[in-house]
């Protein structure tokens, strides 16, 4: 691996910098994470490398989409085939989109045919905060949690009634508006509620460049996204709560398929619904039962004829029973999960349309003085066979602000319906991809200064790739999905933040080598180096900031012959609070009007300006 940096030297230097300031350390801020252990846990007790994007950060960012927001986080790269409404891919630590798990309020989302979440259809307007946990979490969440888990939390009601409304306008005739109401009643049987709705529409720009050839069309490829979300909960008695969560989002977007006068479109619809019961059965035993259903519907209209229409609808139904048992200061977690996936298609026919997965898991989290420990095991069984995964982690707290961690975990990715059953491509003999990850980390946070470094080594085997000629018997004229490749996701992630009076400074950098070991080539659309630099300044009602996004070169093809150059982008933003209820924001992205590639021959946003005004009371 050629990271152009001595890994031991980098970690040693960071450790020395941390140790030099530990004498004045204060406790780590009281942030609570849920995703790292499936239960609320103070950040000070979390061993896994993680990031939280708060509601305040989302509101002040002026980001146009979840993908734009994620792109600024360490360990994450994106690829997109055009503007905000087009197909997006999110890589975590070099792992592909279908090697990561995405949750919305604990409900897994994504297409069973592609294995990836539809990022473009997810609304930003309904989100309260986001948690990102890096590394393998298959022993907690099952299949596909190789690179990490991203959990999106929608808005939840609490306290006095609150109301917010936002309206914004920007380049490309981009319009955005959303409203939300939330709150909670008092008394023995309190009710909390949160309801939000939003709409975004833009004329956007052509998704392709003329260099793409026959698919190019000079027209504008706009999008129209509508969304709504709701959460309700009822306190039945002390320690007993029941609730429901809903999310609906619909995306209508245009894309290019040649100079045909026909309006080529893609329709996507996400629908999540869940009900739960949280019960304190005994003083040491808390039970959570959740039933959920997640739908991911997608259709493409590439011509006026019936032959230009294709559709793939996925429905995932989950039943989960989680039990957290307090054993002194430790927590034993026992989990049962039953998931059923169903697929309906038009324009093509899969050889099978449903599968079920049954899972049992156990984890143990402990703290003994300055020592942190966790371990977890899981068994998943489905049509691709039974898979066992596990993880173990250890952390040592030198001071209240300084910690060192080490962990090891196994993971797997289940073959998608396309890789198993798509005619002329899939084969039901395909096996899951397997991962083995080891990592070490250092973290320091005294409330004003934060430093972190994580080195990871994630070896993947039995990667499913399109192989030509196909080794399976049958009609595979264009190749097939086959377990043949090995890959190594190795890297060093470092981050730092500092408060200096009215200034907040932060930076992160990833030095990585995501490599296909079978061909000795770098994995597609992934850079060896990428970084973010951010600074903001607050003065009374005004807050202004600058962001710099940097990326090294990437390759569009697996043979590493089609190179996409590196790039650097500069974004500016500002928010101003007129009073307690009214505020305004303005954001100027890509102020240098830089032309760059996230996917070869597909356009990326040029210099864009967006402004909006927000009203809210509580």
TrEMBL record:
Its main location: membrane. Residues 193-591 form the TonB-dependent receptor-like beta-barrel domain. The keyword Transport applies. SUPFAM superfamilies: Porins (SSF56935). It is found in: Cell outer membrane. This is TonB-dependent receptor. One of its GO terms (cellular component) is cell outer membrane. The keyword Cell division does not apply. Keywords: Cell outer membrane, Ion transport, Membrane, Receptor, Signal, TonB box, Transmembrane, Transmembrane beta strand, Transport. GO terms for biological process: cobalamin transport; monoatomic ion transport. Residues 48-149 form the TonB-dependent receptor plug domain. Residues 1-25 form the signal peptide. It is a multi-pass membrane protein. Belongs to the TonB-dependent receptor family.
């Amino acid at each position: 691996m050629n990271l152009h940096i001595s890994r031991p030297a980098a970690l040693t230097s960071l450790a020395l910098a941390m140790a030099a300031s530990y004498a004045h350390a204060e406790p780590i801020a009281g942030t609570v994470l849920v995703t790292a252990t499936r239960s609320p846990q103070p950040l000070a007790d979390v061993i896994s490398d993680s990031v939280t994007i708060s509601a305040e950060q989302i509101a002040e960012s002026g980001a146009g989409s979840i993908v734009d927001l994620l792109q600024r986080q360490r360990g994450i790269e994106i690829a997109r085939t055009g503007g905000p409404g087009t197909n997006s891919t999110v890589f975590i630590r070099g792992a592909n989109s279908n090697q990561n798990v995405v949750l919305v309020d604990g409900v897994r989302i994504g297409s069973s045919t592609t294995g990836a979440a539809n990022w473009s259809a997810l609304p930003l307007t309904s989100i309260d905060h986001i948690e990102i946990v890096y590394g393998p979490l298959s022993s907690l969440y099952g299949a596909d949690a190789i690179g990490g888990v991203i959990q999106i939390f929608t808005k939840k009601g609490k306290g006095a009634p609150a109301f917010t409304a936002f309206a914004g306008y920007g380049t490309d005739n981009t319009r955005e508006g959303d409203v939300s109401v939330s709150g909670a009643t008092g008394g023995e049987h309190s009710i909390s509620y949160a309801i939000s709705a939003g709409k975004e529409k833009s004329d956007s720009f052509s998704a392709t460049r003329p260099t793409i050839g026959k698919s190019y069309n000079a027209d504008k490829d706009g999008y129209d996204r509508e969304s709504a979300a709701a959460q309700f909960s009822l306190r039945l008695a002390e320690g007993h709560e029941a609730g429901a969560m809903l999310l609906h989002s619909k995306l209508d977007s245009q894309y290019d398929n040649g100079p045909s006068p026909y309006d080529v479109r893609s329709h996507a619809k996400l629908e999540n619904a869940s009900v739960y019961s949280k019960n304190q059965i005994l003083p040491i035993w808390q039970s959570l039962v959740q039933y959920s259903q997640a739908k991911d519907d997608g259709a493409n209209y590439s011509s006026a004829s019936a032959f230009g229409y294709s559709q793939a609808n996925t429905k995932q139904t989950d039943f989960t029973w989680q039990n957290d048992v307090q054993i002194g200061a430790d927590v034993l977690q026992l989990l049962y999960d039953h998931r059923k996936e169903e697929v309906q298609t038009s324009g093509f026919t899969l050889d099978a349309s449903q599968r079920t997965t049954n899972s049992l898991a156990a984890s143990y989290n402990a703290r003994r003085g300055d020592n942190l420990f966790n371990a977890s095991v899981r068994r998943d069984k489905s049509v691709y066979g039974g898979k066992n995964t596990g993880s173990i982690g250890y952390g040592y707290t030198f001071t209240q602000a300084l910690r060192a961690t080490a962990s090891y975990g196994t993971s797997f990715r289940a073959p998608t319906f396309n890789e198993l059953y798509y005619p002329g491509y899939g084969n039901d003999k395909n096996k899951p991809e397997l991962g083995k990850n080891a990592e070490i980390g250092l973290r320091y946070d005294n409330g004003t200064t934060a430093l972190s470094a994580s080195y990871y080594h994630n070896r993947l085997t039995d990667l499913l790739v399109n192989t030509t000629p196909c080794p399976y018997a049958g009609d595979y004229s264009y190749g097939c999905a086959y377990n043949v490749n090995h890959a190594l996701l190795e890297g060093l992630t470092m981050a730092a933040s500092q408060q200096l009076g009215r200034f907040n400074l932060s930076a992160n950098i990833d030095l990585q080598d995501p490599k296909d070991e079978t061909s000795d080539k770098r994995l597609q659309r992934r850079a060896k180096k990428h970084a973010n630099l951010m600074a903001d300044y607050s003065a009374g009602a005004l807050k202004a900031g600058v962001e710099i996004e940097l990326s090294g070169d990437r390759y569009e093809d697996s043979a590493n012959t089609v190179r996409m150059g590196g790039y650097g982008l500069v974004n500016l933003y500002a928010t101003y609070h007129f009073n307690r209820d009214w505020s305004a924001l303005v954001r100027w992205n890509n102020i240098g009007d830089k032309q760059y590639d996230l996917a070869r021959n597909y356009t990326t946003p040029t210099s864009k300006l967006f402004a909006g005004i927000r009203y809210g009371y509580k």
